[in-house]
Structures are given as structure tokens and as C-alpha cells.
Amino acid sequence: MGEGTAEGTTGTAQGLRCELLGPLRALRDGTEIPLGPPKQRAVLAVLLLQESRPLSYDGLVEAVWGGAPPAHVRNLVQKYVSGLRRALGEGPELSWTGAGYRLTGVRIDDLAERRRLVDEALAARDAGEVGRGVDLARRAEELWRGEFAEGLRAPYLEAERLRWAEKRLTVLEGRLAGEIALGRSFAYVHELVRLVAAYPLREHLVELLMLALCRTGRPSDALTAYEAARCRLADALGADPGPALRSLHARILRQDPELLPPVPVPVP
Q: Which of the listed residues 138, 156, 191, 201 has the most CB atoms within 10 Å of its CB?
């Protein structure tokens, strides 16, 4: 579940909440405020992700428009910065420093909350509190409203979207591993089948599916899932399954008693 990055470490303006786990939105006292056209919103998202660090003019242009900005891009940057100052109102400060544009007094609140929940989930897991870790990971997942910065087209944000999709999937895998450890395999077999179909080359998901099938008394189906994954990896990558998947396959073949269905723990 770990991510190893710091998020949302700066202060935030009273009454203003910004979110990026889905379409960008800013709410003041619970009411969403208009943030202007898509490129203006992309500028805000990029600056928020700097976490109060200044971003040079060239860096901002590259982040939002890439290597082929429009001829009047300088006017657009000035227009969007002015528009954001009006939209955000009192509290946040979007200023020009010697090093570039700097947005302070506001943070990405849902990222900060997610970071805290994921950290607490990892600590609980390491302490042997599997059920609490699963619950915290589930709460972290529930903060997502869609794709990261959904709908905003900018090179920097598109790269971040891929990075956060990986982070999201890693936490989901950790939670499902915890659910299986708690004896709840039956409830999650269908979800794992769907995830394997969506990410057919992700071996950890196949491993979790195989384990869940074994824990529900379906070792032959687990072997079938392994063979299907082996064929996909060979066709797509010309590679064999990794050590973890091969090890689980061998354990199933020798009927490892640790793979038998455990006593289930009720889903809260």
C-alpha cells in the first residue's frame, strides 16, 4: 500500500477545500465555486500539485501546453492567473516570485486525507491489525470520485494521472489481500475476476484471484487462472510468470494445507 511521497503538507485557507481525486473542484464552505475554462483549471491543478513551491513561467507552460504552446500563450497565462485569483478569493495567494508562480494558503485536501489513511492502514497492517488496515484502506478508496484530475488535458496532469492510477491500484491490491487473509475470499472473487480482465498482465491480481479461489475450495479454477495468465504473458511479453505466481502455482499443485479455506470473518 505504501507510496513514499508527501502530499498536502501546507496550510489551507479556512473554508476552502480543493480536490483532485476525480474532476478538479474547489468548495468554499461546502459550495462548489466556478474555476473557469478547462485550461485555467489545468493551471490551478498544476500549481496545486507544486505544494507551495514556485513554478517557473516556462515550467508552467510546458506542464499545461507541452512543447507546442499557442503563439499567445503568455497572454493566456496572465489571463488564467488573474481568473484564478478572482475565483479563489481571499485566503489563497497566487503570486509571482523571482522563481515563478507560487500558490500558497491552499492544499489538495482529498490527497492529504488519502495519504493519512494509507499511512494508518500500513501501520495497522504492520502491527498485525489486519481488519483495521482493511477498513482504513477502504476509506482511502472511497475518496476517489473518478480518475485523477479527470477531464483536464495537460501533459503534466496526464503523467500524474498514470502515476496515481498505479498508486490507487496498489492500495486496492493491499486491501484485497487483507480481505482474503480475513477469510472473506468468497465476497471478492467476482471483483478479482473483473480486475484481472481489466489488467490482464498484472500478476499480483492473478495471484490474489488464485488465492481467493483456493480459499473458497476451487483449486482447479485457480490452476485455470494461472494457465490463462501464463498464456497472456507469453503472448504479450514473451515471458513466463514471475516467482510469486509460480510459487503459488506449485503450492496449489502439491495441495499446500495453508491454502485451505480459513474460518471466515464477517464483513462489517
A: 156
Could you tell me how far CA 179 lies from the centroid of its own chain? 19
One-letter amino acid of 262: P
CB 101 within 8 A of CB 55: yes
- Using alpha carbons, select from 109, 96, 150 the residue that is nearest to residue 26: 109
- Per-residue pLDDT tens digits for 19-33: 999 999 999 999 999
E strand intervals along the chain: 16-19, 25-28, 31-32, 93-97, 100-104
Contact 69, 61 (CB under 8 A): yes
Name the least confident of 121-135, 140-154, 223-237, 249-263.
249-263
CA torsion through residues 202, 258, 219, 187, sign: negative
Q: Supply the mean pLDDT for the chain.
A: 92
Q: Half-sphere exposure of 47 toward its Cβ, with a 13 Å CA cutoff?
A: 29
DSSP 55-99: B-HHHHHHHHHTTS--TTHHHHHHHHHHHHHHHH-SS-EEEEETT
**Positive or negative: CA dihedral 260, 263, 267, 268:** negative
Separation of alpha carbons 175 and 139, rounded Å:
10
148-112-101 Cα angle (round to 5):
75
Question: Looking at the DSSP assignment, which residues form a beta bridge with residue 100?
Answer: 97
Is 60 exceeded by the pLDDT of residue 1? no
Alpha-carbon gap, residue 136 to 95, rounded angstroms: 37
Task: List pLDDT tens digits, range 203-259.
Answer: 999 999 999 999 999 999 999 999 999 999 999 999 999 999 999 999 999 999 989
CA distance linking residue 225 with residue 212, whole number of Å: 11
pTM, two decimal places: 0.85
